[in-house]
Amino acid sequence: MGKDHEKLLNNLQQLRKAANLTQQELSEAAEVSRKSINAIENGIYIPSTVLALKIAKTIKCKVEDIFQLP
Question: Alpha-carbon torsion 14, 51, 39, 1, what sign?
Fold first, then answer.
């Protein structure tokens, strides 16, 4: 993981809620645990490219809508 991961901004929680999904529903669609979704939302875990794409597809947005560098 790069040294700049602390600077990665994410809007996952807001976008997930706007899509009317619980963490559990998103985790099932993305095939990961609910704890993984929670860790991503809290900036503790940076998802793989594949997982980021699955999440974006599930909430019908682009990966860049979820994750940004400042």
Answer: negative
